[in-house]
Write a structure and sequence with these properties.
With 110 residues, the protein is an all-alpha fold. Helix content is 66%, strand content 0%.
């Protein structure tokens, strides 16, 4: 009985630089780990990547990759596909697997 409900259009996710900074700080503080400068830079770039993919795919950022998954990747530091998938385990979403070349590029550039 759809006549009784108003269908709302989906609004795509939009992120800004401050959102990324807030998420980065939140992940670092909740991790209770001391990250190297390189790991922080990787994590920052992974957050921006995830946000852009979430916007592109019109999905929740955490459906693309959870915060804990991004942290695991940043801690890996190596652009080795099998090592990343091994470290991430069951947290590797279909989107993460699809866009893994992007993730590898982020790791290589840092």
């Amino acid at each position: 009985v759809l006549n009784n409900y108003e269908i709302m259009p989906r609004v795509p996710y939009v992120f800004n630089e401050q959102d990324s900074v807030n998420i980065l700080q939140s992940i670092i503080s909740s991790a209770k780990l001391e990250l190297s400068e390189k790991q922080v830079n990787i994590l920052r770039d992974l957050i921006k990547w995830r946000d852009s993919i979430a916007s592109l795919e019109d999905e929740s950022p955490n459906f693309i990759a959870k915060d804990s998954t991004l942290l695991k990747i940043a801690l890996t530091e190596k652009s080795d596909e099998s090592l990343i998938l091994q470290n991430v385990g069951n947290d590797a979403s279909p989107y993460l697997q699809t866009y893994l070349p992007d993730v590898l590029l982020i790791l290589k550039q840092n």
